[in-house]
Specification:
Blueprint lengths: L1 H13 L4 H7 L7 E6 L4 H15 L4 E6 L2 H11 L8 E5 L3 H6 L10 H7 L2 H6 L1 E2 L2 E2 L2 E7 L1 E5 L10 H8 L10 E4 L5 H8 L8 H4 L1 E5 L4 H10 L16 H9 L3 E6 L4 H7 L3 E4 L11 E10 L6 H11 L2 H11 L6 H8 L4 H10 L2 E3 L10 H12 L5 H19 L1
Parallel strand pairs: 1-2, 1-3, 8-10, 12-13
Antiparallel strand pairs: 3-12, 4-5, 6-12, 7-10, 7-11
Helix pairs in contact: 9-11, 18-19
Amino acid sequence: MRNTWIKTVLLSACVSLPLWSQAEDIQPEAGSDLLIWTDSSTLDYMKYAAESFNRDFGYDIKFSFRGLAPIDAASRLIQDGGSARVADVAEIEHDLLGRLVVAGGAMENLVSSERILSTFLPNATAAAQYAGSNYGFPVSYATLALFYNKELLPVAPKTFEEIIQFGNGFNDAKANRYALLWDIQNYYESRMFLTLYGAYEFGNQGTDAKDLGIDSPLAQQGMNAMKMLKAANRSNPVDMRNAQVRRGLFGEGKVAAIIDGPWAIQGYDNSGVNYGVVPIPTLKGKQPRTFSTVRLAVVSSYSEYPKASQLFADYLSSEKMLLKRYQMTKSIPPVESLMEKIIVDADEATYAIIAQGFHSDAMPSIPEMGYLWSPMASAITAMWVNDQPVNQALDHAKSIIEEQIAYQE
């Protein structure tokens, strides 16, 4: 009901206007006082954006800010919305969008939908949609890449087979020395192998929860290919679940290559290791498709200032502000024209992540995605550690996920 009321109010301000002009013709509510939630590393940028927003449009909107991790922001909107003051605009990771919409915490986008659909990467536009409607304004994206020690691997690996070959004379589990590490049990990192031959999590581009593809013949083929990498990674995946352990070994020169994301760059810089970054190498001639995570600025359906909130969230997704965000935080904008500008003089890590982004898929944002993580972690463990046949492990995971989905219906 609240979303419907807000939508009626906003549409009354822009009825019959083309989508391109809606943001220009809506005026913020008098006395708007917006609370913004973003993660701590982005607070300085967000304060700059608020000042720039008021300056560009001659507004006098008040802003306050709180550093809050995206997962916590989504949870707070769901748990506290309607009973306590929550953000008017919050930044979340897109895979939480479905839960937030179903809980009634996110307001549908009423400005710039056509602009976003026509200018943003398909991954980003898909990430901002739920049940055919647009929620949230994409502001950045991230995906995985391969970080490698240039002292150990002077030539950047283009294939996983090269890393396997290097590991033949390098691996020593007793000395914690490995050619390759990643968080094997974490489906976010291992999904690139399950989908190597075209498998998927949910059908219809991640929106059909009744079409679960994680045990298909293509998925089995992909996971069998992943098992080849045991030759390069003899570590105990339970021990390596701790990111600090993995990254510490890489920093000590005991790991030749590690799969990680842009969130780890600062730590690697601080370690002093001479490292390079490249897109994910091929395996058996196939290019792995990683998950991409899109950061969204969402408008709370509980906001007392829906017009001001929509306008500010829209402003955060403008090309001007996406470029400024990159300059201040290194967050990559999910807009191809901006990526083309950035990549010209980008550092090695940014270049690699942008390149891998073209071989990535946005995580499904439907609520049912939450049921995959634990069963898939168990399935991967059964295959990798216990040598359970791939088809048995994936069939078991599928049955658990289907039971959980059915229970919630």
